[in-house]
């Protein structure tokens, strides 16, 4: 089983937990152990780079399943197999408490940090958002670096999946808050090596854990807030010109 750490409230409860052998809680940790139990297996965890996981650069025969808050996309599905979606998400804006940014015009005044190879990076660097400049975006190799930059005042906000940022805010003793989110309509999926047949084994198990309410129970247990209560920030979409 591979993942990319840290993953607050998905793997452990803080962004300081980066040793898979010392983690014993979290949405995806619990999900992985439940899947292993249903298969009669003992789960062994390994930490890999997020960009390597989503690019299919982790050898498919070296792991059975990857759970790492990975959004299902067409491009990624060309190099890895995805499970059925098990978690819905949009992109949340995490800032220091007291920072005001209710509109996109407010957000344009901020310097935003994103993690490399995430949908947040694509969102803010692809030109899809009208009026956004790359000068306002800083890309970090991992989430720990991004959060450290926010705490050090090197960026004004971090954009990553709303539930991940809610988890980080819940561990900040009120110093950080998620003040808005951007509608992207994403779904997380487990990853398997391309064409190795593992999807057919694990998909029915994941579907069963969704159908019986287990996954919703884990979400309610670990998240520091309900993503549906975070207000959406309207964003202008760039239009193609001929």
TrEMBL record:
The keyword Signal applies. Coiled coil: none annotated. This is Unannotated protein. Residues 22-226 form the Solute-binding protein family 3/N-terminal domain. It comes from freshwater metagenome. Keywords: Signal. InterPro entries: Solute-binding_3/MltF_N. Pfam families: SBP_bac_3 (PF00497).
């Amino acid at each position: 089983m591979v993942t990319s750490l840290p993953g607050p409230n998905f793997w452990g409860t803080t962004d300081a937990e980066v040793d898979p052998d010392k983690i014993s809680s979290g949405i995806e940790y619990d999900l992985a152990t439940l899947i292993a139990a249903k298969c009669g297996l003992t789960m062994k965890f390994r930490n890999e780079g997020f960009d390597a996981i989503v690019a299919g650069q982790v050898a498919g025969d070296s792991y059975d399943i990857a759970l790492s808050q990975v959004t299902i996309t067409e491009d990624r599905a060309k190099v890895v197999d995805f499970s059925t979606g098990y978690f819905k998400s949009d992109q949340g804006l995490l800032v220091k408490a007291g920072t005001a940014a209710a509109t996109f015009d407010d957000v344009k005044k901020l310097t935003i940090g994103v993690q490399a190879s995430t949908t947040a990076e694509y969102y803010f660097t692809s030109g899809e958002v009208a009026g956004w400049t790359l000068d306002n975006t800083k890309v970090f190799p991992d989430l720990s670096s991004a959060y450290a930059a926010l705490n050090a005042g090197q960026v004004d906000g971090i954009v990553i999946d709303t539930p991940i940022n809610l988890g980080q805010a819940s561990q900040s003793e009120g110093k950080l808050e998620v003040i808005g989110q951007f509608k992207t309509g994403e779904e997380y999926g487990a990853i398997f090596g391309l064409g190795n047949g593992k999807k057919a084994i694990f998909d029915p198990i994941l579907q069963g854990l969704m159908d019986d309410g287990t996954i919703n129970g884990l979400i309610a247990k670990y998240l520091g807030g309900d993503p549906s209560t975070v207000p959406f920030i309207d964003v202008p979409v760039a239009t193609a010109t001929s």
